Amino acid sequence: MTTSTQTALFTDLAEGFTPHPAPAQQRYGEAGLFANRALWQIIEKAATSTPAAPAVTDATGTLTYAQFTDAVRARAAGFVAAGLRPGQRVVLQQNNSVQFAITLLGLLRAGLVPVMTLPAHRIAEIAHLAAGADAVAYLTEDGRRGYDYRELATELQQRVPGVEHVFIDGDPGAFAALPDADPDTVELPGPTDPDLPALLLVSGGTTGLPKLIARTHNDYLLNAHQSVRVTGLTRADTYLAALPAAHNFPLCCPGVLGVWSAGAHAVFTDNPSPDAAFDLIEKHRVTITALVPALAQVWCAATEWEPADISSLRLLQVGGSKLAQADAEALDAALGPITQQVFGMAEGLICYTRLDDPRDLVQQVQGSPMSEFDEVRIVDENGDDVPDGTDGELLVRGPYTIRGYYRAESTTGGQASLSFTPDGFYRSGDRVRRLPSGHLVVTGRIKDTIVRAGENVAADDVEENLVAHPSVRQAAVIGVPDASLGERICALVVASHEHAPGQPLPLAELRSFLADRGLAAFKLPDEVRLVSSLPLTAIGKVDKKALRAQLDAEPASAKS
Ligand code: OOB
Where is the AMP-binding enzyme C-terminal domain (predicted)? Predict the structure, then answer.
């Protein structure tokens, strides 16, 4: 490839990417925050110093660092041989597996930029992301749990003709298999600009279509390295990737990338249920894993009946949505003091509780920013800073937080400028308060507020108190239009195993329980509905948009 072709490809990648302003970038650089390497090089250290150590495992077996490195080079060579060129975008959608690991690093080694979609995404999201990223290829697998991703591929190529290549892990059908080639027969790309995007994450919001988030080699390496420090990860650790590994949390907080940078061992599973995961923990002596709160709750309950020995776990990271204090306490009681709260976002900022924080604090807060260079502001609706202890919207700026969505005009319908302040802070939309100690407590989403008879009720506040009731496993409250109140508070509740099956959960009882916990009268639910489950997003957060749609579609007779 000529230098001018390569330059043209990187110019295309850089289009629609918002870097840090030069003075900020310089300040971060001078502070030594950036490794100035390519993201794939994260495995180089272990490959040289401990080549025989296990790097990745799934049900098909284990690869050592030496074998993993060879497989990554062969996969990268396969992409080059197939005609893909550095800087081009490739939509990646694979379940947790060794093949996912090889593909991800193979793409990076070939200078390609993966778009990190989740297995639960479907054509609407995949087509939107592929078009937004101007992707030339889609890489997925044949099928899983009755879903055929090859059909998605066919439809994707019809909708987004720029997606020229499709690669399939498993039976490729009409498409190409995962490519592998002899690395000595092709030229792998040389050094890359570490301040260009290495990969594109997908925003985790529960409203609208996802947005693209470009993370650079330098900022994502910083994310991994700082997360390794905060979690005390060493080569003696074994990490279980139980959440879909394309998500920022299991990918880089510290996740599998952090694991490889530390020379530790990553075990992949696509079945996070306790019966499957506990056996893996016992078998591989897993020391650290990451869960969303809904899964953590299931694991917590399962410790009562699952026979597997999971005492090797030293750190259970929980994040992605709010972990209710009652659930945090239950986790400590069931598993010992190993829970770490993680409050993060694909856009950047990651907050952790620290390993030496007192347990009562760990149960109550969502952590504090991982880097001293994270600038956090908490502001009222006028954009003015609020004092500690007062709720406001979290704004953030820092070395690994984006300054703009990737190609925002095409993926956000021109609304992207609303997400950033003129001086470059990301408006998270999260309602938080800061304790004098600097720890953050997440109190909800700015917009997830019910206006009942003129009073603002934060949905999270009611939900957090509802799950403290012994009969309640999960709860979501939403505002339902009401002629006299404007909106009334509807609580959707999944019963716990302590609740007698088939029995109602009387509204009056729940209201008096909440009132006894000190909840103001205007925040008490006007209506309660028992449901068997709550709809979840691709990573496992309660999907309020889907919930509202379900409620709208339900016959009025279902109301209690
Ligand atoms: C993580 O990332 P995303 O991009 O899927 O979602 C970010 C949003 C946050 O803005 C916040 O609304 C919510 O998810 N969130 C939490 C939370 N962690 C995330 N809300 C309350 N408590 C928490 N602990 O979800 C993510 C990325 C990296 C690490 C962990 C989570």
Answer: 462-541
